[in-house]
Amino acid sequence: MDYELTKRYFKVVDEYINYKSCAIMIGVGALLFLSIAKVPAMGIFGLIIAGIGVFRIVSKKNKISSEKASIPSDEEYDNEVVKNLNNLKSKALNALGLDADEVKEIEPISFDGYVYKNASNAKKGKDDLWRTNKYEYVILFFSEHEVHCYTYNFDTTADKKTEATDVYFYKDIVSVSTASDSTKLLGQNIDYEYFKLTTAGGTALSVSLRDTSNAQRSINAMRTLLKAKKQQG
Question: Global pTM?
Answer without folding.
Answer: 0.84
